[in-house]
Write a structure and sequence with these properties.
Number of strands: 10
Strand content: 15-25%
Largest sheet: 6 strands, mixed
Radius of gyration: 23 Å
Shape: globular
Number of domains: 1
Distance between the termini: 14 Å
Length: 264
C-alpha cells in the first residue's frame, strides 16, 4: 500500500482547491466501512446540502461549466472539405454551475427509517465565518445536539472556525455527542504527528457502538486517488502556518519519504 509521508492526516491535502475531492472520497470510504459494520439492522445514506454562490464570490470552490448554450446559428458544413481539413466549430457560451454541495452521512434504522446518527466531515465552506455554509452547519449542529440523534463531526482542516468546546486544543479532532444526553462530548484530539483514531459510532440499544477506523479510511483514499503521484510536496505547506518545530518536522518527513521513493 502506498502511504503518505505522514502517520495521520496529510497537511498538503488541506489545500482548499483540492479538498472537495478529498472530502467526497472520504465520505464514500467512511460510508462503505460503516455500512459493512451496521447491516442489516441499520443502513447508511449519503445526503447533501446545496448552497448558491456567485461567480465573484471570493470563497467559492472551483466552478466548472455544467450546461452550455449556443450563440448564433450552426455553421454550414463545407460539402467539399478535404481530408485533414479542420471542421468549423459551433461557438457556445458556458452556463456555470453556481451550486455548492456539502455531503454528509446519515445512519438510519432499517425498520422505521429514522435517522440514528449524523456524521459531518467539515469543509472550508462550513468553517468560514459569514457564509451560508457556516450558518447552515451551525443551525443543524444546534438542532441535532438538542435531539435524540447522535452527532459526529470530524475536522481534518486546521484553517477556519471551530466550536468553542474544541477550539485551540489540537490540529484536528473528531467529536461525538450522544443523542438524548446533555453531555459530555467525547472528543478525539489529533495532532499533525498522530495517527487518526479509531472512534466510536453509536447506534440504538441493544446494539453496541461500532468502531470507525479513520486512518484506514484515509489510507484507502490516499492510495486509490494516487495522491503520492499527484501532490507536489516541494511546494509551500497549505495555510495556516505551522509552528516552526512542526514545519521542520513536515519538511524532514517529506525529504525522507521522497528519498525512499526515489530509491525504490
Amino acid at each position: 500500500m502506498t502511504t503518505s509521508p505522514f502517520p495521520g492526516m496529510d497537511p498538503f491535502l488541506e489545500e482548499p482547491a483540492r479538498w472537495s475531492g478529498v472530502h467526497a472520497r472520504l465520505i464514500n470510504a467512511i460510508s462503505d466501512r460503516l455500512a459493512d459494520l451496521i447491516a442489516p439492522n441499520f443502513f447508511v445514506e449519503i445526503e447533501q446540502r446545496i448552497y448558491i454562490t456567485t461567480l465573484d464570490d471570493p470563497d467559492k470552490r472551483p466552478i466548472v461549466p455544467d450546461v452550455y448554450v449556443t450563440t448564433g446559428q450552426r455553421p454550414q458544413q463545407q460539402a467539399t472539405a478535404t481530408a485533414g481539413t479542420i471542421a468549423e466549430p459551433t461557438l457556445i457560451e458556458p452556463i456555470y454551475d453556481l451550486e455548492i454541495r456539502d455531503r454528509y452521512i446519515d445512519i438510519l434504522d432499517a425498520q422505521n427509517r429514522e435517522v440514528v446518527t449524523t456524521l459531518e466531515l467539515l469543509s472550508p465552506f462550513n468553517k468560514k465565518v459569514g457564509t451560508p455554509g457556516r450558518e447552515a452547519f451551525l443551525n443543524k449542529r444546534k438542532t441535532v445536539l438538542g435531539s435524540k440523534v447522535h452527532w459526529i463531526e470530524i475536522d481534518l482542516l486546521r484553517a477556519g472556525e471551530r466550536p468553542s468546546e474544541v477550539n485551540g486544543r489540537s490540529d484536528y479532532y473528531a467529536l461525538l455527542k450522544r443523542g438524548g444526553a446533555p453531555g459530555p462530548f467525547a472528543v478525539w484530539f489529533i495532532d499533525l504527528r498522530d495517527r487518526l483514531p479509531v472512534m466510536a459510532v453509536p447506534l440504538r440499544p441493544p446494539f453496541e457502538d461500532v468502531p470507525l477506523d479513520l486512518q484506514a479510511a484515509f489510507d484507502q483514499i490516499y492510495e486509490r486517488a494516487y495522491y503520492a503521484d499527484s501532490l507536489d510536496y516541494t511546494r509551500s505547506i497549505p495555510l495556516p502556518p505551522l509552528p516552526p518545530a512542526d514545519e521542520k518536522w513536515v519538511r524532514d518527513r517529506v525529504r525522507t519519504w521522497l528519498a525512499e521513493r526515489g530509491a525504490a
